[in-house]
Design goal:
209 residues; alpha+beta
Length: 209
């Protein structure tokens, strides 16, 4: 892993950790909001546990298989949480402020896990496909792209991190890094950028399935 790659990955993680700290809130009374907030906090704890585990065993031979299993589990938790926040009644159930708060925090957790996958790829030469998906609100092409990606997750177990473009200032650093200017946009395996709607077959070919 080159010095530049290490610097970029470390910088992204520091920005994410700082941004999460900026928007940490208090406990909430809404039962639905409590449940979603609980899932996010559990994901944060799992991520911190993973990071501590990696640091503790840095001087030992790295168990790439175990690290991959742990990180895949974290990614799956976030994918399920994204489905909860994407439900048609989520904003109404949670209220505008709390919905926005949780969505920003959820996006930051996704970016953090995305960067951890990048580090694992370089340290262990993993080949599991990872896609960063930028979508637009109320955009038909983005909606269709999301459905295609859901099918790829079901068929091949790929990891997809979906983030609404231009959603919040705390999230803009990664959009700027990849020069995301349109929706939908995909970053496949950290390198290949696809602007506009991509078909199932195109993506299947791009991830090597």
């Amino acid at each position: 892993m080159g010095k530049k790659q290490v610097f970029v990955a470390t910088l992204l993680l520091l920005v994410v950790v700082f941004a999460i700290g900026v928007i940490i809130g208090n406990s909430f009374s809404n039962p639905e909001l409590k449940e979603i907030n609980k899932v996010i906090r559990n994901s944060e704890l799992s991520t911190e546990s993973y990071l501590i585990e990696q640091e503790l065993f840095r001087g030992f031979e790295k168990n790439c298989e175990l690290s991959q299993i742990r990180l895949s589990s974290l990614s799956n938790e976030l994918w399920k949480l994204g489905k909860l926040l994407a439900s048609s009644t989520a904003k109404q159930d949670l209220g505008d402020y709390q919905y926005d708060f949780l969505k920003r925090k959820y996006h930051l957790m996704q970016i953090k896990t995305f960067v951890l996958h990048y580090q694992l790829k370089n340290e262990c030469a993993t080949s599991n496909p990872v896609i960063l998906f930028y979508y637009g609100k109320d955009d038909p092409n983005s909606f269709e792209q999301g459905q295609i990606l859901d099918q790829l997750v079901t068929d091949f177990g790929i990891h997809v991190f979906a983030i609404e473009r231009n959603y919040a200032p705390e999230l803009s650093f990664l959009e700027q890094y990849y020069e995301i200017n349109t929706s939908p946009s995909l970053i496949i395996n950290y390198e290949k950028k696809v602007d506009g709607l991509a078909s199932y077959d195109e993506l299947k070919s791009a991830i090597g399935e």
